[in-house]
Design brief:
alpha/beta
Length: 86
Amino acid sequence: MLRVTTKTEEMGTVLLLEGRLAGPWVQELADCWQKAANSDPPLRVIVCDVTFIDDKGKALLAEIYRHGAELMAEGCMNMAIVEEIT
């Protein structure tokens, strides 16, 4: 399960992810990203509370990053994934 919380702040839009970015939840993030992409830039994606990211999830995060989003992470696994993407 993945929870995506969208926050609009002065500095742009934030997508806060919690749970597993895997399987059908990858499409859920893609849908939320598409909606957020229409808002004011910049976009930040916070993966600090993500417990697992599968290959499709990593690919989607890389695509989101290539489109200008900032990825933020904590913890060894998530930081390593973000460093690999960026």
